[in-house]
Design brief:
This protein has 313 residues and is of the alpha/beta class. The chain folds into two domains: 4-117 and 244-312, FAD/NAD(P)-binding domain, CATH 3.50.50; 123-240, FAD/NAD(P)-binding domain. The chain is 25% helix and 30% strand. The protein is built from seven helices and 21 strands. It has helices spanning 16-27, 61-75, 123-127, 137-140, 156-165, 185-193, 291-312; strands at residues 4-12, 33-35, 49-50, 59-60, 78-80, 84-88, 94-98, 103-111, 115-117, 133-134, 148-152, 171-175, 197-200, 203-211, 216-224, 230-234, 237-240, 244-246, 257-258, 262-263, 277-279. Strands 1, 2, 5, 6, 7, 8 and 21 form a seven-stranded mixed beta sheet that branches. Strands 10-17-11-12-13 form a five-stranded parallel beta sheet. A three-stranded antiparallel beta sheet has the order 14-15-16. It is elongated, with a radius of gyration of 21 Å. It starts with a strand and ends with a helix.
């Protein structure tokens, strides 16, 4: 028999937005249920040092998320290890199906499913995923001790990954399509000063090269976008760090989206295009994409949900 669980407020996702929403909703006596998803804690669980969280000069991403989860539980939120595989927002109460088989029903929903790593879309990239190709330096960097690594990207994520990988690699090559980086100036300064890091500008990856038996990466074939010239950069690890895409698959055909499948919210609020459904964090934010702004939006979503639920009574 399918288990059914009803709650006044269902929170889907468990990054800074989800946990903050849970804290505020629990304090408002809404008895929220938070379903963590496939990656409890969100992107910060695959981040090393977080240096821009207020009150913490430096804290490990996974440690911060453990503390946020503990805070949510302490306030009275029910945190469930499950993944929502289907969500029906056509009728109230809203219904969500968990991978566990549990059917969740809710009077209101806060979506905080965050974002997922983007990939280049190369067949060779797909072929070597898990065999030299990765999008998570903190997950896989240890496997490349004393080896050479290529990192693709030009934003904060790429620079952070490159710097972190110097803890293991003998050499890190950053490849960027343009002639300047988008990363914060302080991060760029660290990158350019690091003796293990070199940068190849104005270039795109056309193929990840490797061996068949055993399956493994041996290099990255690059094309210079100005001259068309190609070169192969030898490497044992190939890390993609070109940003993230919003995890909006559950609601892409139900809610209004914008700017590349981010969930639209009413300006100055977290209200989506369906009454009683709220969204927060990287799922909605294509501009700031910071842990602290996600947490702030989680607070907003809980308050918006509280006010909406009170008006329904």
């Amino acid at each position: 028999m399918t288990a059914t669980k009803h709650t006044r407020l269902l929170i889907v996702g468990s990054g800074p937005a989800g946990y903050t929403a849970a804290v505020y909703a629990a304090r408002a006596m809404l008895e929220p249920v938070l379903v963590q998803g496939m990656q409890p804690g969100g992107q910060l669980t695959i981040t090393t040092d977080v240096e821009n969280w207020p009150g913490e000069t430096s804290i490990l991403g996974p440690d911060l998320m453990v503390r946020m989860e503990g805070h949510a539980r302490e306030m009275g939120a029910e945190v469930i290890t499950d993944t929502i595989t289907a969500l029906d927002l056509s009728n109230r109460p809203f219904t969500a199906t968990g991978d566990s088989g549990t059917l969740y029903t809710a009077d209101a929903v806060i979506l905080a499913t965050g974002a997922q790593a983007r990939w280049l879309g190369l067949p060779s990239e797909e072929k070597f995923k898990g065999f030299g190709v990765s999008a998570c330096a903190t997950c896989d960097g240890f496997f490349y001790r004393g080896k050479e690594i290529v990192v693709v990207g030009g934003g904060n994520t790429a620079v952070e990954e490159a710097l972190f990988l110097t803890n293991f690699a003998s050499k890190v090559t950053l490849v960027h399509r343009r002639d300047s980086l988008r990363a914060e100036k302080i991060m760029q300064d660290r990158l350019f000063k690091h003796p293990k890091i070199s940068v190849i500008w104005d270039s795109e990856v056309v193929q990840v090269e490797g061996t068949e038996m055993p399956l493994g990466v041996t290099g990255a074939r690059l094309r210079n976008l100005k001259t068309g010239a190609e070169q192969v950069v030898p490497c044992d690890g190939f890390f993609v760090a070109i940003g993230h895409a919003p995890a909006s698959e559950l609601v892409k055909d139900q809610l209004k989206l914008h700017s590349g499948n981010y969930v639209w919210v009413e300006p100055g609020s977290t209200r989506t295009s369906i009454e009683g459904v709220f969204a927060a964090g990287d799922l909605t934010d294509h501009t700031y994409r910071q842990a602290v702004t996600s947490a702030g939006m989680g607070c907003m979503a809980a308050l918006d949900a509280e006010h909406w639920l009170a008006a329904q009574a």
